[in-house]
Amino acid sequence: MTAATGRATGLFPAVSRAAGPGSKLICVRVLVTGASGFVGGRLTPALEAAGHEVRAMTRHPGRYDGAGTAVPGDVGDEGSLRRALEGCDAAYYLVHSLDSADFQDKDADAARAFSRAAADAGVQRIVYLGGLGDDADDLSPHLRSRRQVEHLLAGAGVPVTTLRAGIVVGHGGISWEMTRQLVAHLPVMVTPRWVHTRTQPIAVADVVRYLVGVLETPAAAGRAFDVGGPEVLEYLEMLTRVAEIQNRRMVVVPVPFLTPEVSARWLTLVTDVDGQTARSLVGSMSNEVVVRDDSIRSVVPFEPMGYDEAVLAALGERARERREARGGTVTSGVGRVG
Prior knowledge:
The chain has eleven helices and 13 strands. By secondary structure, the protein is an alpha/beta fold.
């Protein structure tokens, strides 16, 4: 049976498609959770530009000023999820509770509710942005939670496409803001052991490109993909290159006995990341987060930008937002931490 026959293919119901088996989708009705967040605020206009019909789920639809049609919904309220998902062909799951001490329980409960609501609404695909990390490693609570959510979303039978990312570089992203603010505020930096952990940062624009691309590729259903930029870097390399790009001088003083708890407190003193989120993220910084399987490159083929280019794009967006703010121009949700 070809893709043109609709719901019977197990992909999406009643949407327009290009001719022929395995061809890419032309129009899909999509729900985006976290639509006003760091990734969601960029994804909604990209989906619209690709020709899809977008519903932006938010707890405060009256305040939403981004792309798509705002609909009320909260992952903590299963009834609201069912209403928001009604009639949707696919859904993006881009939410988390890292700022809560009980984030693992909250995220697990929300994923179960979303899975049930999506199945009952006839949603044919969930796309989830999770975290890199080797299952054979002793994963941090944060990364274990991301992996658990990945499995729970598939619990009611809806195929889940997962993109697993490490550090996402872009204005407003929590991990990027920690990096930028550390460089901006600390010409002399006391560094713990985790600065030598390897990671594979990726530009937020490339994450969005992958998120749109897997929706349009039926072969991506039910699969998990590692995504990253072209370079594997230690956290220390990331910090020093941000300093070099901005012509800043940074002196690094290694302190190997600096504990994760002390590191988190230190981060809250020199950045505006809240304490609970800092503790959750620092706990993950001892885990290597690099791409082990690059099969996404053949499913959604393009060349991701390098780290320096991603940093320049993030700094440029921040500078534009600050200019607009001084001029009294209000920008959309793109760039907010979320």
